[in-house]
Write a structure and sequence with these properties.
There is one protein chain. With 176 residues, this protein is of the alpha/beta class. The chain has one domain (4-26, 37-175): TIM Barrel. It is 54% helix and 13% strand. It contains eight helices and five strands; from the N terminus they run βαβααβαααβαβα. Strands 1-2-3-4-5 form a five-stranded parallel sheet. α1 (13-34) links the parallel β1 (4-7) and β2 (41-46). The longest helix is centred in the N-terminal third of the chain and has 22 residues, at 13-34. It is globular and about 60 Å long.
């Protein structure tokens, strides 16, 4: 398996371009020092709405994209996970302000729309050559996994205790 190097929290393409140059320079120094080379991939974690909007630019510079759905939810809603806490979000769900806790089940209208747009933009540039995944608790929630499958996401990652659920949900989504 190849090493993956991920650049987090980007909102501007030049953050990736400049950081990627530094990463490649350091990797080349290590290769020269060790006298051998290995293949690797450089990608980014999309956690900000602006990164979704410029996903076509981002795709030109990276081998993979991983959506950090917890942080993307936080930055899209403007809710701090820590401050929203159980009481605030429970009240919203109980009083039908929200249909569910967006940190538990992926919000398809807002966060999901941003993700869908980003996947479409990235695929338009690199097709299936770019790997697209999500990480976070949404990666172990069946409705969220189905949604991710439907918009063309390749893989999900989740907490170890959710792996069995995630595998079943991914298989069901693929069979549909």
């Amino acid at each position: 398996m190849l090493p993956y190097i991920e650049i987090p929290i980007v909102s501007e393409i030049n953050e990736i371009v400049i950081t990627k140059e530094h990463i490649i320079d350091e990797i080349e120094k290590v290769f020269e020092e060790k006298g051998e080379k290995i293949d690797y991939k450089i990608g980014t974690m999309i956690e900000l709405p602006r990164a979704c909007i410029i996903a076509d630019e981002i795709a030109k510079e990276v081998d993979f994209i991983s959506f950090g759905t917890n942080d993307l939810t936080q930055t899209t809603f403007g809710y701090s996970r820590d401050d929203a806490g159980k009481e605030f979000l429970e009240y919203y769900v109980q009083n039908k302000v929200l249909s569910h806790d967006p940190f538990a089940v992926l919000d398809e209208k807002g966060v999901g729309s941003l993700m869908k747009m980003a996947v479409e933009k990235a695929r338009k540039i690199k097709g299936n050559e770019i790997e697209i995944s999500i990480c976070g608790e949404h990666g172990g929630e069946p409705r969220s996994i189905k949604f991710c499958h439907d918009i063309g996401i390749d893989a999900v990652s989740c907490s170890p205790f959710r792996v069995a659920i995630a595998r079943l949900a991914a298989a069901q989504a693929a069979l549909e």
